[in-house]
Specification:
130 residues, alpha+beta, two-stranded antiparallel sheet
Length: 130
């Protein structure tokens, strides 16, 4: 646990450096913690959600669990089942990202950031999401 506390500032600094390298300014340093929600979307809220001045990275086709780990300390995010079946996204590591709102390289100006996801074994081209 102590190791994780020591590692968090390093990961945050790395994420901020990546965002800054993309031409965006740094984001406020807020902690995220999962909260329970009903329905298919799993929402991860930061303690003090505020719009950030950052660009959405291109995470399409990537693992939702990794995206959560990389971005959770910086933003409020929701994972939504893109199949239209309303399945809960309890473990983002079991899902892949098919779409994001805002889209890749677009400015993040509002919360939550929404990721449309499917199970890793499913094909994003077959989605019924909007």
């Amino acid at each position: 646990m102590a190791f994780a506390k020591l590692l968090r500032p390093v990961l945050t600094a790395t994420l901020l450096a990546l965002v800054t390298a993309c031409g965006a300014s740094t984001a406020p340093d807020v902690s995220a913690s999962p909260s329970s929600s009903s329905g298919a979307a799993k929402r991860h809220r930061s303690a003090n959600p505020q719009p950030v001045s950052a660009s959405m990275p291109d995470v399409l086709g990537g693992n939702a669990g990794r995206a959560y780990e990389q971005m959770s300390s910086e933003m409020d995010m929701t994972f939504k089942d893109a199949s239209g079946q309303g399945r809960p996204v309890d473990d983002p590591a079991d899902w892949k990202i098919c779409n994001s709102h805002p889209g890749p390289y677009q400015q993040i100006t509002d919360y939550p950031v929404v990721f449309d996801v499917l199970k890793v074994s499913e094909n994003c081209e077959d989605t019924t999401s909007k």
